[in-house]
Specification:
This protein is an alpha/beta fold. Helices cover 53% and strands 10% of the residues.
Length: 299
């Protein structure tokens, strides 16, 4: 029972942190670019792939270019190894994700936000009694998880899971971050930021429902400009969300670039899988690596 709770919780935690978007079949046209980059410095190369964490079974096979890059690599680096989520302390997670001793989410949200959340929860089929004991950061992930699964998308077919399965017993797997780090990041938000995070999650969910076809086409075509426009729309439209975006994306991008620089000087070829949202824009991993003088080629 504890293992199952931990598994589900860990999958929820990986959803929004990387601005994940779902996809229909990802058949790739010959000669078309991928959301994949080859990074070169003075040492060994590193491949960086933008990830989609929830997919359907018919999303596969992926582009041969992506699979070949993985085959050429010695190491797999992921944000967090979801296959080892059972190592997370379940009781500690629940303590950080749930209210207790009579406390509840209604006491920590504005009346307007609480009413909005109740409507969204009802729409995705989450009973009211399950809303009240969840902290805003965890409820945001729960609602988005349920919405994606309701639409038929499954984390077991996510790109991270695909390459973790391929690497098992064949390649060493390392983490850019960890689930503990991601949990503590969100759980550490004060009430005001947790409410913003929850609203940010729900706004992104609305955008997902509206723009999913365009997002899929942008990912399939490796179209960074289109992806950036769609994935940062919530921030562009409502600047109040920028502090959340900065903590969830921009700061983490800088930390991950430091790790990737270590990989570039390790003497081994790494295949790095990170959420697509970490690669886009002037503060994205790709631009940060260019700014540091590395050669960056989209494949």
């Amino acid at each position: 029972m504890k293992k199952e709770i931990s598994k589900r919780s860990g999958l929820f935690l990986s959803i929004l942190l990387s601005l994940i978007f779902v996809s229909s079949p990802l058949a790739h046209a010959q000669g078309q670019k991928n959301f994949l980059w080859l990074i070169k410095g003075k040492g060994n190369p590193v491949y960086v792939l933008g990830s989609i964490h929830f997919l359907k079974k018919d999303a596969y096979p992926l582009s041969r270019t992506i699979e070949n890059a993985f085959d050429k690599s010695d190491m797999l680096a992921v944000e967090a190894n979801v296959d080892e989520v059972g190592q997370t302390d379940v009781l500690d997670l629940l303590d950080k994700a749930m209210y207790k001793n009579g406390d509840g989410i209604e006491k920590h949200l504005s009346a307007d936000t609480y009413a909005f959340v109740r409507r969204e929860a009802n729409r995705v089929g989450l009973p009211a009694e399950l809303i009240n004991n969840q902290k805003p950061w965890f409820l945001g992930l729960t609602l988005e998880s349920l919405e994606l699964m309701k639409a038929g998308y499954d984390p077991d077919y996510g790109i991270d899971k695909h390459f973790l399965a391929r690497a098992e017993g064949k390649k060493q797997i390392v983490e850019l971050e960890s689930l503990d780090y991601q949990i503590n990041l969100l759980a550490g938000f004060p009430d005001t930021e947790q409410e913003l995070f929850l609203l940010y999650a729900l706004k992104d969910l609305e955008a997902l429902n509206r723009d999913v076809d365009r997002l899929v086409e942008a990912w399939k075509a490796g179209n960074m400009r289109a992806m950036e426009g769609l994935m940062t729309k919530s921030i562009t439209d409502e600047r109040r969300f920028y502090p959340i975006y900065e903590k969830l994306i921009i700061t983490r991008n800088r930390n991950m670039v430091t790790k990737i620089e270590d990989y570039l000087n390790s003497g081994r070829t790494y295949f790095v899988v990170v959420g697509a949202g970490h690669l886009i824009g002037s503060g994205g991993i790709i631009q940060l690596l260019k700014d540091k003088g590395y050669r960056v080629d989209q494949l």
